[in-house]
Write a structure and sequence with these properties.
eight-stranded antiparallel barrel; elongated; single chain; 9% helix; 1 helix
Length: 218
């Protein structure tokens, strides 16, 4: 009886080993799947900063001889909404301006002019090529202009429109950079008491801005 049990045990060992190695009984190996990349969209709010150059001419009541290009820089905030490949949005900004000009408007009358700051509220309409966005923009502009002759200084807020366009590229889901051009004619205002200008003369400013910017998108 003992010999019979021992013989059965010896025969059972290789049979169990073969069963363990059978293809149908092997544990399935995990399959590695790379994480899916999130689909990029321009939709969302953003804030940013910009810097560049501003230049232009004071017009209508007199044109300055030496308008100089100045530095401009400011802050930006806005919202985009993407529909298929089209992107619509609203953007506002507030900026410092170093634009200054000077010259003789009449013989013996030297006048200085400057644009100290300006802000815009603009719509944007563009075409998205994945992470690249080509857009046009336009809306309302308001700037603080000053005319000065001797001890007489006249400052006021001058309003107008602004149009332009640019290119923006998103390097990540949250960070994008842009380059744009804006044309900003600020309407004329009535001058009183500034030497070289008749009372009631209107003087406006035709300004241009070229700037780059970086936006953080939420």
């Amino acid at each position: 009886m003992k010999k019979l049990l021992l013989s059965l045990a010896i025969l059972a060992i290789p049979a169990s080993a073969i069963a363990a190695d059978a293809p149908g009984r092997r544990a399935q190996q995990p399959v590695f799947k790379p994480a899916a990349m999130p689909i990029f969209t321009w939709t969302g709010f953003y804030i940013g900063a910009n810097a560049g150059a501003v230049w232009g001419d004071f017009t209508k009541g007199g044109s300055f001889i030496n308008p100089k290009t100045g530095f401009t820089g400011g802050i930006t905030a806005g919202y985009n909404h993407q529909i298929n490949d089209f992107v619509v949005g609203l953007e506002g900004d507030y900026n410092y301006s170093g634009l200054k000009g000077n010259g003789f408007v009449v013989p013996g009358t030297f006048v200085k002019g400057s644009l100290g700051s300006y802000g815009t509220v603009r719509g944007r309409l563009g075409m998205a090529f994945d992470r690249a966005l080509v857009y046009g923009t336009g809306g309302y502009a308001l700037g603080q202009t000053t005319l000065e002759s001797g001890l007489i200084k006249s400052s006021s807020n001058s309003s107008g429109y602004v149009i332009g366009g640019g290119l923006e590229y998103a390097f990540t889901q949250n960070i994008s950079a842009k380059a744009e051009y804006l044309y900003m004619p600020l309407g004329g205002r009535n001058l009183t008491g500034v030497p070289g200008f008749a009372n009631g003369a209107k003087t406006g400013l035709d300004a241009s801005v070229v700037r780059g910017g970086v936006n953080y998108r939420f």
